[in-house]
Amino acid sequence: MSGEEKPKSHGRLRVSVSAQPRDLMAPQRVKGAWAARIVTLFPEAFPGTLGLSLTGKALDQGLWSLETIDLRPFGIGKHRNVDDTPAGGGAGMVLRADVVAAALDQAAIGTPPDRAAWPVVYLSPRGKPFDQAMARRWAAAEGITLLCGRFEGVDQRVLDHYAIEEVSLGDFVLTGGEIAAQAMIDATVRLLPGVLGNASSTEEESHSHGLLEHPQYTRPAVWEGREIPSVLTSGNHAEVEKWRRTEAERLTRERRPDLWAKRRGP
Ligand code: SAH
C-alpha cells in the first residue's frame, strides 16, 4: 500500500510550514475538534454543500474538520484499479477488499479503536436507516470515518473484517455514497456546540422529541389574502406554545403515523 497522494483537508485552519499551495492542503487534524474522514473515489465532491453557510463557517472556524482519503492511489497496477467483476458473475463492478482496506488503514491513523468513540460506517442502501438519534450519537463521538461505495458496492469481507456498520440515507439507491455522507455529516455537524449559534435551537425542531415541527410564518402579515394565525401575533407566549404543540402533534399524526405510534408506545 502507499498513499502517494496526501489526504486532503478542508477549512482554513491548517498548519502551514511552507508557502507551497500543495502543502497548504496537507492533512489537518485539529486537536479536539469533531472530525470526519471520508474514503471516496471522488474527493473533489467535498466539502460540497458542507462548505456553505453554517457548516462551512464552522469548518473555517475549526469547530469540526473534514479530511478526504482518495481511494484511487491505493489501486492496483499501473492503472490503479480499485474494482473488479463480482464473484459468481452478474452486472457491474465491486470495490476490491485489499484496496478499500489500505485506504481504511490510512483513515484509522490516530483514531481510537473503540467504535463508539469513532464509528466506522459504510454508506449503503442495505444499512440501518439514518435518523436524528444516530446524528446525536455521532455528534457525541470524537469523529467518524465514512466509506463511500460506488458501482455495486464493496467486497463483503472488508466490512466484516473491520466491523463496519452499514447506514442508509433512505429506501432508494444512489450511484455513490458521497451525497449520503454529506447529508449525514450535515445533520451531525449542526448538533455540535457553537455551530448553529445562540439564535437557533436543536431542541424544538422536527424529530428532536419524536414529533414533526409546527408550521412557521414570517412577514408580511397578510400575503395573497392569507393571514398568519392570530395566536402567533397575540403576544401570549403560553398560547403560542400550546398552538405549536397541537400543530406538531396534528402534523405527526397525519403525515407520520409510524412516528406517532412510536411516541405513544405500544
Ligand atoms: N448494489 C448495491 C447498490 C450500490 S449503489 C445494492 O443493491 O445494495 C452504489 C453505492 O452508493 C453504494 O455502495 C453506497 O455506498 C451508495 N448508496 C446507494 N444508495 C444509498 C443509500 N440509500 N444510502 C447510503 N448510501 C447509498
Fold blueprint:
Elements: E1 8-10, H1 21-24, E2 34-40, H2 53-60, E3 64-70, E4 83-84, E5 94-95, H3 97-108, E6 120-129, H4 132-139, E7 143-147, H5 156-161, E8 165-168, H6 178-189, E9 222-223, E10 226-227, H7 237-255, H8 257-264
Helix pairs in contact: 4-6, 7-8
The structure holds S-adenosyl-L-homocysteine.
Short description:
By secondary structure, this protein is of the alpha/beta class.
Total strand segments: 10
Overall structural domain count: 2
SS content category: alpha/beta
Average pLDDT works out at 91
Percent of residues in β-strands: 15-25%
From the 3D structure, determine the CATH topology of the largest domain. Alpha/beta knot
Relative helix content: 25-40%
What is the H/E string? EHEHEEEHEHEHEHEEHH
The radius of gyration computed from the alpha-carbon positions, rounded to a whole number of angstroms, is: 22 Å
Main sheet makeup: 6 strands, mixed
Question: Quick one: CATH superfamily of the largest domain?
Answer: SPOUT methyltransferase, trefoil knot domain
Number of helices: 8
Shape: elongated
Q: What CATH architecture label of the largest domain applies? A: 3-Layer(aba) Sandwich
How would you describe the overall organization of this protein?
With 266 residues, the protein is α/β, with parallel strands linked by helices. It has two domains: 9-189, Alpha/beta knot (3-Layer(aba) Sandwich); 204-264, tRNA(m1g37)methyltransferase, domain 2 (Trp Operon Repressor, Chain A), CATH 1.10.1270. It is 29% helix and 17% strand. The strands form three sheets. A six-stranded mixed β-sheet has the order 1-3-2-7-6-8, sandwiched between helices. The longest helix has 19 residues, at 237-255. The structure holds S-adenosyl-L-homocysteine (SAH). The site of S-adenosyl-L-homocysteine (SAH) has 19 residues, from strand 6. S-adenosyl-L-homocysteine binds at residues 123-126, 148-150, 152-153, 168-170, 172-177, 180.
